Amino acid sequence: MNSRDLSAVLAEQVQAAAASGSRLSLQGGNSKSFMRTNAAADTLLSLQEHRGVVRYQPVELVITARAGTPLTELNEVLASRGQMLPFEPPHFGPTATLGGTVATAQSGPGRAYYGAARDFLLGCRFINGRGETLRVGGEVMKNVAGFDLARLMCGAYGSLGVLLELSFKVLPRPECNRTLLLEHTEADALALCQQLRRRAAPATASFYHQGCLYLRLSGTEAAVSAAASTLGGQMLAADGDIWRLVREQQLACFNAAQSLWRLSLPVTCAPYPEPTLWEWNGSQRWLFAPSDSSGPERWAREHGGSATLFRNRSERDLPRFPALEPKLADLHQRIKRALDPFGVLPPCPYLPAEPVVHAD
Prior knowledge:
Layout: H1 7-20, E1 24-27, E2 43-46, E3 53-57, E4 62-66, H2 71-79, E5 83-84, H3 98-103, H4 111-114, H5 117-120, E6 121-127, E7 133-137, H6 149-152, E8 162-169, E9 171-172, E10 176-183, H7 186-198, E11 203-209, E12 212-219, H8 221-231, E13 234-235, H9 239-247, E14 259-264, E15 277-279, E16 284-289, H10 295-302, E17 306-311, H11 326-339
Parallel strand pairs: 1-2
Antiparallel strand pairs: 3-4, 4-8, 5-9, 6-7, 6-8, 10-12, 10-13, 11-12, 11-15, 14-16, 14-17, 15-16
């Protein structure tokens, strides 16, 4: 694996931007360009060459790597020791990096069963908007006293700092994985997933589309075999293929002429009035609708959730994120101003844009 530390160079670039009042656009592998939060910036700050595993402690189940480390390389290192990132982050391209995964808070099929990216992030090093390098958190699970700033970086889209190093808790790979295909109505599929949660069944991924529920079972051979025998259905031969395709949104059902909306909902939520694809026991649902539609946002709010315009079919338009409630928005704004007083880092997608303030 290539390894290169550009921390000092990146800090100098942020300091120069703060001095000139420039706004930076952060980029890793550029695999998630469709999720960009600002169309215009003065300077591109690339982290792709700032890469490499800094420390790996397989016995302690902890790995620390630089933000530009490709996910493919990181996964290979972990797989060589029979371990994995349990939240299974999507790549959306071969150049995906660890920093981009954290910045966009991307989690894959295992998120509802193992936890989200932020649940496994132990600590990080980052550069704030003044060009200062800070370290928060650590490399053990119980390392936080007070405000957990490291996890706040998940989903901040680089608005709070330029990520340099990230430490993650990892897990052993399951002894056995099997995928079942069961035919159910959407309501019955949602009910079955709830039953499996209550029974603590060894289910570690779910995906539903047009009457078909795909269910992954993971654990010991005995536990998986017993659960599969009870559930019935069809056993898929190429077990891992379906989850890679779901994770990367490469199934044919993800191709449509309209924009893709992501609905984040309580797991007990009833089916959407129109056909959807869903994962995570129904708490993450994908809907194709026009980008100017208000229906997904209104319906999600009415059912205790939120809607994000995830992939906008018009390349000129940005994705659209749900607005924060006033008190939460005020807290986010205060944190943003404390870490980025001159507005040189990308804007937070959940807050209105603020003007750039030149340094004294």
